[in-house]
Backbone:
């Protein structure tokens, strides 16, 4: 309840901020009086926007602008300034005020339109507009209301249809379950089933004996591996017994014996790794498993630093008993509990290794974890290493979730602590980054530490194997971070501190609603240049009208232009529509005509770019429709950053499934759309549909980029007429050192190449295949290397993050 109230308060403040910013930019009043009986949020926002705003009093009646909030609840003052802005939080119309203002000689100024996430508002002034202008303004308002009503009705109908389908599916499922249960009862109660029970029992036991009886097992190994293979396996077993003395948790439950022995005999020339574990009343069976998982490491140059702040004396006795058997295990009883950050720092002080690893007291290390980390340190000179991880319940074999991560991606880390476990870093790096964990970030202390470490790291290496086993238990963060709400506040504070260190201006950092542990950053738009929207189009005028109308009706970004690139249209109504659009939007819409033949998306956009006047270019298909009013703000806040190249949006099919949420490089041999056909409301794999992240590429159906980069790349490659021009462009942008980004907070419908058509004839299919072969020839080495923004443990033939787990080498 408290979180919901805080969320509502933050949303109200955001609406006030956006409205105040717009008032300051468009109306530019020196002074403003605010008539508000509730809260001073808008007044404060106006002050921050540079307007001298004060509560409405007798002395404040000479202000340039009167802002009235919730006008249905206050009385109109006797004296009013020349401009009055009505702001309504609960309704779209303030009928009483509008009538009274009309009686006093005020007129609605339709140049002021309610936009986006800002509060609904209407501007009245004493200057009488032309009658035609007034009529047109009211007609536009009515059109907007009609559009909203149609969309609401469509949504209601779709929801009703969905509910009906779900009810039907549920009814069918129940009927099917009853039929299955009936059939099962008929089988188990039949005479034949009862008579054949002894036979089934014998067959079952025979199979069990065949797989477990030593002689049969030996015969199976001989048939599979031969005599030499059996001898090698026996030798490895003997060595394994000597090398891995784990009591409760055996190493061969995680990896083949031969691999474990081979790694144990092939030690990387690495430095000592100190594993720091804060203990706190750890259950003894969990403790034993954790200790075994460390003792059974194939890499041997480690020490385990256990710092105990708990009250259970049995924990200390247990660890000390194990330390007598292995001197690498060290134990220290802490005088007081300083929570995880303070206790972990005691472990850092206790450690003597050049590298440090973090391990929770009830989690497990894969036996090969430190070996891979040490190899990365020795061969790649890594000072920060992290691995993939698995979440398990009960036994480690019962994995309920694999978290396969991308390589180091800055925007991913700024959205959530995807690095998490296992992490190994150098002591020198930690000291360079300002020391250990900090108490003020308790709950997200690791996240805050990783942000500082990665800011300073010289070589970050990701090991794409699940080498850390995170135990899920009631109340644990592995089970649900919302069980620890203070973690969320600490994570937000850690991100704000990170941006302050990096000198990055942000308006806000907030939790993404409904996704605990995932954060949204609103970067300050310090370079709000014009966005030139390039839209190639050929007939299909209804699609184009929907696209253009949605841009003008819903876009809140103040500075944009539309360049319609006419491509061999034939229908007269197309050109009539062009004329109408140019008359309606004479200041920022123009039509340019491409003289080429056929369809060449690359050439069309390169041609249109010559007429652009903006600092940013937005490549946009004519079969799209804007959904989120602040779509351009969400994209520009990333495109303005010097490190960023292409920025893509979340595109939905008309049935509200995903069409685009970033491009996965190498899928199907070339590239594919990640999460394609997932429901729009889905979280995606590990929440990836909810947060901003780095991707290999974005579709040119909606792609924003700084014009200077577009020119640096010499635009789109015109040898790719239809397919892969956007992927090729994004690859070239990445190779030039820029990061491509996907944001789910800019959303549009995409009706998927209606005006181009499908590859449904031999000529088109031949051209498509030629573009595939050309792309593979150009980028073969990169395709072989894989997509660092995803993970090699996903099936490269699928777009849905299906697992295809790689074996350990």
Residues:
């Amino acid at each position: 309840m408290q979180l919901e109230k805080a969320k509502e308060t933050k949303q109200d403040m955001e609406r006030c901020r956006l409205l105040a910013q717009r008032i300051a930019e468009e109306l530019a009043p020196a002074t403003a009086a605010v008539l508000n009986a509730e809260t001073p949020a808008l007044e404060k926002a106006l002050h921050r926007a540079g307007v001298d705003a004060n509560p409405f009093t007798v002395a404040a009646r000479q202000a340039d602008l009167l802002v009235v909030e919730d006008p249905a609840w206050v009385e109109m003052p006797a004296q009013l300034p020349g401009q009055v802005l009505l702001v309504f939080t609960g309704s779209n119309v303030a009928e009483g005020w509008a009538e009274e203002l009309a009686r006093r000689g005020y007129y609605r100024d339709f140049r002021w339109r309610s936009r986006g996430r800002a509060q609904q508002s209407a501007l009245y002034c004493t200057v009488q507009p032309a009658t035609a202008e007034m009529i047109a303004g009211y007609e536009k308002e009515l059109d907007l209301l009609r559009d909203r009503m149609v969309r609401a009705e469509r949504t209601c109908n779709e929801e009703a249809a969905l509910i009906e389908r779900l009810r039907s599916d549920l009814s069918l499922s129940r009927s099917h379950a009853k039929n299955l249960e009936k059939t099962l009862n008929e089988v188990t109660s039949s005479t034949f089933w009862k008579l054949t029970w002894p036979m089934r029992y014998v067959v079952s036991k025979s199979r069990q004996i065949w797989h477990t009886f030593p002689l049969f097992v030996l015969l199976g190994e001989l048939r599979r591996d031969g005599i030499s293979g059996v001898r090698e396996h026996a030798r490895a077993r003997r060595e394994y017994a000597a090398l891995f003395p784990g009591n409760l948790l055996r190493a061969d439950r995680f990896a083949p014996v031969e691999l474990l022995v081979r790694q144990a005999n092939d030690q990387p020339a690495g430095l000592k790794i100190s594993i720091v574990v804060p203990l706190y009343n750890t259950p003894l069976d969990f403790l034993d498993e954790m200790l075994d998982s460390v003792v059974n490491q194939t890499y041997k140059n480690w020490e385990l630093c256990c710092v105990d702040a708990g009250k259970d004396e049995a924990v200390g006795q247990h660890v000390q008993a194990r330390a007598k058997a292995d001197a690498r295990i060290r134990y220290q009883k802490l005088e007081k509990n300083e929570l995880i950050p303070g206790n972990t720092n005691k472990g850092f002080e206790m450690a003597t290794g050049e590298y440090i690893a973090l391990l929770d007291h009830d989690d497990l290390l894969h036996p090969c974890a430190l070996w891979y980390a040490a190899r990365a340190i020795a061969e790649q000179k890594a000072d920060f290493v992290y691995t993939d991880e698995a979440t398990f319940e009960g036994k480690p074999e019962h994995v309920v979730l694999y978290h396969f991560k991308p390589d180091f991606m800055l925007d991913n880390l700024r959205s959530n602590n995807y690095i998490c476990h296992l992490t190994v870093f150098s002591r020198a790096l930690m000291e360079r980054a300002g020391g250990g964990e900090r108490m003020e970030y308790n709950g997200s202390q690791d996240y805050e530490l990783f942000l500082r470490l990665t800011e300073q790291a010289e070589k970050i290496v990701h090991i794409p194997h699940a080498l850390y086993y995170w135990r899920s238990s009631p109340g644990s963060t592995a089970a649900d971070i919302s069980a620890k709400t203070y973690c969320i506040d600490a994570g937000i504070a850690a991100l704000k501190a990170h941006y302050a260190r990096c000198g990055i201006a942000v308006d806000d950092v907030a939790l993404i609603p409904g996704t605990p542990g995932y954060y949204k950053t609103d970067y300050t738009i310090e370079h709000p240049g014009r966005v030139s929207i390039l839209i190639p189009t050929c007939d299909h005028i209804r699609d184009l009208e929907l696209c253009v109308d949605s841009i003008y009706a819903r876009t809140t970004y103040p500075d944009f232009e539309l360049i319609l690139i006419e491509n061999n249209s034939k229908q007269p109504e197309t050109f009539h529509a062009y004329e109408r659009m140019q008359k309606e939007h004479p200041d920022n819409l123009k039509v340019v005509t491409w003289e080429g033949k056929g369809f060449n998306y690359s050439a069309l956009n390169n041609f249109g770019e010559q007429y652009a006047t903006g600092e940013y270019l937005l490549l946009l298909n004519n079969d799209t429709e804007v959904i989120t009013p602040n779509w351009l703000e969400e994209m520009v806040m990333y495109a303005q950053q010097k490190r960023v190249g292409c920025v893509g949006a979340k595109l939905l099919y008309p049935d509200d499934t995903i069409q685009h949420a970033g491009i996965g490089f190498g899928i199907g041999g070339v590239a594919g759309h990640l999460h394609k056909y997932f429901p729009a409301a889905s979280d995606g794999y590990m929440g990836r549909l909810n947060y901003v992240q780095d991707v290999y590429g974005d579709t040119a159906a909606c792609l924003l980029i700084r014009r200077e980069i577009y020119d640096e790349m010499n635009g789109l490659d015109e040898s790719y007429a239809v397919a892969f021009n956007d992927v090729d462009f994004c690859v070239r942008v990445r190779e030039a050192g820029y990061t491509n980004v996907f944001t789910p907070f800019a959303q549009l419908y995409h009706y998927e190449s209606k005006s181009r058509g499908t590859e449904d004839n031999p000529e088109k299919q031949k051209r498509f295949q030629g573009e595939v072969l050309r792309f593979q020839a150009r980028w073969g080495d990169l395709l072989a290397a894989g997509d660092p923004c995803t993970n090699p443990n996903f099936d490269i033939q699928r777009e849905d993050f299906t697992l295809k787990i790689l074996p350990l080498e």
Summary: The CA atoms of residues 42 and 92 lie 18 Å apart.
